[in-house]
């Protein structure tokens, strides 16, 4: 064999050996720059670990658990355990109570799967398994979270305090007119209505505005007597006051009597004024009609303040008191809240529905609220005593159990079952399970609860395997 043939054979043999060593993992294989592999680090261990996944050759976010090719025909790049980048916190070994480094019992799956390992490893997505230390069995109820994870998850805690809770009580109600703001226009004598102003039901009138022109024999007779006493000048003060009183008893107001005194003449008809501001709710007066004493000719309602009558359950009556603030949302305006105040709790319950009627006075300056509208009422009822409370966001309520995560400091958390009572103002009453000195987690508490449940399940699994 020639010298050139012998050299070629040696090179071929070395290449074959190198390929074998590469497959057996005897030395690291460095990806060329075209594959965009992470830059080599001086302290990186040799890539002797098994392949954990394959990544896209062009550094796109595509991964595979088995060898494959990209759309452009390039092979996916193998990533070994020692080459993967981990974003998990890797704190230094924590000393135990005796001063020695803590010993790892086993490693659990980071995604909560029922899979453990006696040695460090990664899951198919490249995440490190979480170590479980031997001394963690000393406190089965405590979960320890590293400072880095606390910052990433945004864990926050607030103290448990005694406060006076404002508990909302709700009921349906109906809007009514305030009867103290309703006036009926009627005459105290038999009369004839010569004409009525151009008013109809629903129109708004002002106090003193003439509603109709009225003629009555008794009214004319009393006016003639009053004018005679004024003109004679000899009737004396008592006679003058008597004649004036007779006109007032027939329903004339001070302005009408003063107008007769100025003119010294008996008017043929009297302009009858509106007694108050408001809307004409009812009109029965007609031109030329005869009106008997007491007939309701007009009914005028002032809507500037209305009532809301709501029926609250018997169990809520003790929490309601006059003067409490109420929020009313009419069904016609569900997005608008009207502020009112509890004026009265009626003294009798409805025997059939076991509810108590509550009257709420509600300003209505814009006139949006109308009679017989349905409304939803909410009263902020405050208790008389301070109770132990926690933020409502601190309670994990599954329906069957309520849990709060107690912050014990230094990254240690303890899930506790609690018994809760009333809710209101973003707070919840704590009846059992917590004390005043406790701090509870208000954000990301469900993550810690899940960690605690997983820890308990793995411990039970570990004990079950040990007992076999």
Brief overview:
With 468 residues, the chain is α+β, with helices and mostly antiparallel strands.
List keywords for this structure.
468 residues; alpha+beta; conserved putative lor/sdh protein from methanococcus maripaludis s2 fold; 5 domains; six-stranded antiparallel barrel; four-stranded antiparallel beta sheet; 30 strands; 19% helix; elongated; disordered N terminus; 3HB_CusB; Cation efflux system protein
Explain what you see.
Residues 390-448 form the CzcB-like C-terminal circularly permuted SH3-like domain. This is Cation efflux system protein. This protein has 468 residues and is an alpha+beta fold. The chain folds into five domains: 3-80, no CATH class; 86-138, no CATH class; 151-163 and 386-466, conserved putative lor/sdh protein from methanococcus maripaludis s2 fold; 168-178 and 303-382, Beta Barrel (Elongation Factor Tu (Ef-tu), domain 3), CATH 2.40.30; 187-295, Beta Barrel (OB fold (Dihydrolipoamide Acetyltransferase, E2P)). It has helices at residues 3-24, 147-153, 217-232, 236-249, 254-263, 445-466; strands at 51-55, 63-64, 77-80, 104-108, 116-117, 130-133, 143-144, 156-159, 161-163, 166-177, 182-185, 191-196, 204-205, 210-215, 270-273, 278-283, 290-291, 298-301, 305-313, 325-330, 338-350, 355-363, 374-382, 387-391, 395-397, 402-409, 412-417, 419-424, 427-432, 439-443. A six-stranded antiparallel barrel has the order 10-19-22-21-20-23. It has a four-stranded antiparallel sheet with strand order 7-27-26-25, covered by helices on one side. It has a four-stranded antiparallel sheet with strand order 9-24-29-28, with no helix packed on it. Strand 4 and strand 5 form a beta hairpin. Helix 3 packs antiparallel against helix 4 (236-249). The longest helix is centred in the N-terminal third of the chain and has 22 residues, at 3-24. The chain is elongated. The relative contact order is 0.13.
């Amino acid at each position: 064999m020639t010298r050139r043939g012998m050299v070629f054979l040696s090179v071929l043999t070395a290449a074959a050996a190198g390929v074998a060593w590469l497959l057996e993992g005897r030395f690291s294989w460095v990806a060329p720059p075209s594959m965009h592999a992470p830059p080599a680090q001086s302290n990186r261990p040799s890539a002797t670990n098994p392949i954990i996944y394959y990544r896209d050759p062009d550094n796109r976010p595509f991964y595979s658990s088995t060898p494959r090719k990209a759309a452009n025909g390039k092979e996916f790049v193998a990533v070994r355990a020692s080459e993967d980048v981990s974003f998990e916190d890797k704190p230094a070994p924590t000393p135990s109570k005796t001063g020695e480094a803590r010993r790892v019992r086993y490693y659990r799956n980071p995604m909560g799967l029922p899979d453990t390992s006696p040695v460090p490893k990664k899951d198919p997505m490249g995440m490190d398994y979480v170590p479980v230390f031997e001394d963690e069995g000393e406190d089965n109820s405590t979960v320890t979270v590293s400072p880095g994870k606390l910052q990433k998850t945004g864990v926050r805690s607030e103290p448990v305090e005694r406060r006076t809770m404002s508990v909302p009580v709700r009921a349906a109600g109906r809007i009514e007119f305030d009867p103290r703001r309703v006036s009926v226009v009627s005459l105290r004598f038999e009369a004839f209505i010569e004409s009525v102003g151009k008013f109809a039901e629903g129109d708004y009138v002002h106090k003193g505005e003439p509603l109709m022109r009225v003629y009555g024999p008794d009214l004319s007779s009393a006016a003639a007597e009053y004018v005679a006493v004024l003109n004679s000048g000899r009737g004396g003060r008592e006679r003058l006051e008597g004649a004036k009183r007779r006109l007032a008893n027939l329903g004339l107001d001070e302005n009408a009597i003063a107008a007769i005194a100025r003119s010294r003449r008996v008017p043929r008809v009297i302009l009858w004024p509106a007694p108050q501001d408001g809307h004409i709710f009812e009109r029965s007066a007609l031109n030329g009609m005869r009106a008997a004493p007491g007939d309701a000719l007009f009914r005028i309602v002032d809507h500037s303040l209305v009532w809301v009558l709501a029926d609250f359950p018997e169990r809520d009556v003790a929490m309601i008191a006059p003067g409490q603030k109420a929020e009313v949302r009419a069904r016609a305006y569900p997005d608008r809240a009207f502020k009112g105040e509890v004026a009265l709790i009626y003294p009798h319950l409805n025997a059939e529905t076991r509810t108590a009627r509550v009257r709420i006075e509600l300003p209505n300056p814009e006139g949006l609220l109308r009679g017989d509208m349905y409304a939803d009422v909410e009263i902020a009822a405050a208790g008389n005593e301070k109770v132990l409370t926690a933020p409502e966001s601190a309670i994990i309520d599954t329906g069957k159990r309520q849990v709060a995560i107690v912050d014990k400091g230094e990254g240690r958390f303890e899930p506790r079952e609690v018994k809760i009572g009333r809710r209101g103002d973003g707070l919840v009453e704590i009846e059992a399970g917590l004390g005043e000195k406790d701090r509870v987690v208000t954000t990301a508490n469900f993550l810690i609860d899940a960690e605690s449940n997983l820890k308990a399940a793995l411990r039970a699994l570990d004990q079950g395997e040990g007992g076999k």
